[in-house]
Amino acid sequence: MIDAPEKLRVEGLSKTFQTNRKAHTVLRGLSFGVAEGEFVSLIGESGCGKTTVLRIVQGLLGADAGQVVVDGNVVTGPGRDRGLVFQQANLLPWRTARRNVEFGLELQGLSRAQRSARAGELLDLVGLGGFADHFPHQMSGGMQQRIGLARALAIDPAVLLMDEPFSALDAQTREVLQKELLRIHAETRKTVLFVTHDLDEALYLSDRVVILAANPGRVKQVIDVPFDRPRGELTELRGLPEFQQLRSQVWQLIRSTNAGSDRVQD
Ligand SMILES: Nc1ncnc2c1ncn2[C@@H]1O[C@H](COP(=O)(O)OP(=O)(O)OP(=O)(O)O)[C@@H](O)[C@H]1O
User: Fold this and answer.
1) CA 222 → CA 41, 104, 212, 216, 265, distances in Å?
2) CA-nearest residue, atom 3 of ligand 1
3) pLDDT at 105
4) 241 cis-preceded (ω within 30 degrees of 0)
5) Which pLDDT score is estimated for 3?
6) Where is the ABC transporter domain (predicted)?
7) 17 CA distance to ligand 1 middle (Å)
8) Which ligand 1 atom is at minimum distance from the Cα of 263?
9) Is pLDDT at 257 greater than 70 in this prediction?
10) Which residue among 14, 24, 53, 196 has the greatest number of ligand 1 atoms within 8 angstroms of its CB, and so is best to mutate?
11) For the chain, which residues make up each domain, given as ranges?
12) What pLDDT band is residue 265 in, cutting at 50, 70 and 90?
């Protein structure tokens, strides 16, 4: 765990959905914290409630019990202190890369020149400085995800929320973007809450991994990832006996939690 003050606190979250007159308790008493600058991943089988947690943290969904606290403030709705990156970048197709990144800045009272300069810095940060005037249809899926990340960072959020941001990409692009995210995290020192099905991805990127148990979703165990930063290639890390040992430990935990699941990638 990083030795820094807590930036995000998820405390005692419970959530039950009513469907067809049946109650489905998805989360029960789920708690964890993320320290300032820390990268924490949530991992667990499909349906254990990872996205539900993220939507509650985002402020788009209310919890039945519990609360989310960001920088000491209880979350009561969506806010600029939380930036979001989803599986699909969902860029505005009629806007260039620069204008997509500027989108979040338009309500902040910045001048056009200030917005443009800030978007330019962020496009440089995500490695797309030369593509500012390209439209989404002129860019690959990986490039679009980079723009999505730049757009989320543009508002300088206290916490960056990422819901399986690389899962729709091919394996090679995914590895490139994972490495890029490590670099961007090192440069920005953002606090990140990241949802993934991919165990290697979680261990490669994170300082800690929160393993969720399903039905109802709750914290099974929190694992510290002991590898020094900056981290090299994932393939190098995979070769280390310590990595293999940790991976197998986490895998056993997930399996014991979710017998029968096939959604967490081994
Ligand atoms: N609005 C809703 N109404 C009813 N049920 C819902 C709603 N949203 C989510 N659920 C149910 O809550 C459970 C948890 O869903 P959630 O998407 O949070 O899981 P997840 O762990 O993110 O899954 P995945 O890994 O497949 O994305 C699922 O059984 C889902 O069907």
Assistant:
1) 10, 33, 9, 17, 18
2) 17
3) 87
4) no
5) 81
6) 8-239
7) 9
8) 25
9) no
10) 24
11) 1-81+182-265, 87-156
12) low
CA-19 nearest atom, ligand 1? 4
Residue owning tokens 């800045």:
105
Give pLDDT, residue 21.
84
| CA 49 – ligand 1 centroid, Å | 6
- Residue of the CA atom closest to atom 26 of ligand 1: 46
- Rounded CA-CA distance 41/28 in Å is 19
Pocket of ligand 1 (CB under 6 A): 17, 19, 24, 26, 46-52, 197
Rounded Cα–Cα distance for residues 172 and 192 (Å): 23
Q: How far is the CA of 122 from the centre of ligand 1 (A)?
A: 32
In the chain, the amino acid numbered 84 is L
CA of 52 to the centre of ligand 1 (A): 6
**CATH H superfamily, domain 1-81+182-265:** P-loop containing nucleotide triphosphate hydrolases (3.40.50.300)
Which among 195, 192, 167, 168 has a CA at the least distance from the CA of 181? 192
Percent of the chain surpassing pLDDT 90 = 86
Distance 169 CA to ligand 1 centre (A): 22
**Placement of tokens 């490495």 in the chain:** 179
Mind listing the pLDDT tens digit for each residue in 55-92? 999 999 999 999 999 999 999 999 999 999 999 999 99
pLDDT 10s digits, 158-191: 999 999 999 999 999 999 999 999 999 999 999 9
